[in-house]
Write the structure tokens for this entry.
Amino acid sequence: MKTQVKKTARRKSAIVIGTHNLHKLKEIKKILGPLPFDIQGLDQYPPAYTVRETGKTLEANALIKARAARKHTGRVCLSDDTGLEVKFLNGAPGVYSARFAGPKCSYQDNNRKLLQKLSRVPQSQRQAVFRCVVAVAFPGGEEQVFEGKCPGVIVDESKGSKGFGYDPLFKPLGQQKTFAQMPLYIKNKISHRYKAFRKAAQFLKTRKKSM
């Protein structure tokens, strides 16, 4: 009589998205799609902590956050920094996009300030680009950086209730709706965050055997 050997499913390696923003976490998980990893958020690694984003570039801030998440969790960590660069404002708010209206400001505060800055600027001069930089930090010290861009324009009033951040004001090039007016599955096909995280996902797939 043959002895039956019970097969044990191999547990997936965990990858942590280094953010406490649940809206962002949800969006990133949808972007990454099915991967041979267990995608987790920092909410699964209490206690919560804060990181001072002291970098002068999106790349620097993404790495600061990825390194902090790696230190906190001991896992492979992905963190991003995103900036809205408005041509008329010489690239502002850029790296300061999240705190454009000041410390502890809300999304609405930032949007109001941006509209005020562009209140007399014609539509033809309201070009902007969303940039997202994703940093991947491995427990062994290796780090990789990936970038995604989405060009567009700033509309003259808030439109839509989906998304977060500057989504109600940003209309991607070639589109008739702002990010905040689009279903998430459409936004995730063209966004700066989609492009950056998909590059990171493809890279991680190639590293699966060593993780």
